[in-house]
Write a structure and sequence with these properties.
about 230 residues, 5-stranded mixed sheet, about 25% strand, alpha+beta, two-stranded antiparallel sheet
Length: about 230
Amino acid sequence: MEQQEWMRAVERTFVVRSPKQQLATFGSTSITYYVVTEPIYQETDEGDPEGVIRTGKVVAARPAIVTPSYAMNLQGFSSEAYEYLRHLARKFGPNRPGILYQYTNEAHKVEIVKGVPSEIAGRISSDLDGREENLSVVLVGVDELWDIALLKFMYEFTSSSAIQNAQEMQGLGLFDAQPHLSGAPKAAAHQIERLFIEVERGADPEILKRELDRWGLFEQYEARFLNLFRRSG
């Protein structure tokens, strides 16, 4: 895709109705979306105007506290992203905490209805207001690049939620460095303790092992980890 194409899509994207709540700090958030576009064929069709409505859900996982060194052990980033993480580690230190947001998109259906996109979006918004749907968003975008509209919204929505999320985490001391854990944040200790409990209840110990490796803390917990197998034996 040419840069000018997605830039055009971003410029023509606007939010008609925003969610009435922000992203949850200590839980997942499910946002229903309605992306309204003018169909491609409308440019040459002289009939009555029509609009395409794409609906679905974006599920935001619970925001996670990570550090550059932790993120370097996650899979799925580009080589440029890993280079940026190395830059952050050099500039701020390997244990500088930040917040990681992860999303999944669950597309539901596509409808074609009569009317121009802005009018259709307005009707949907009024209906959602009447039903007090607090976690729904209505967007107008470009048909062939409709997901650009969704990405633009999620970026801006995440940015607006991040300050509140960070304040609530900071209020609980979750960013605080733990000297006995090589400076890893308090959130790491909480996560590891939770996973130990889950493994004791029958969860897969490999999940715990991966988390310890990501934080670079396996040596600190090695004896306790191996003791899980001695007790089960």
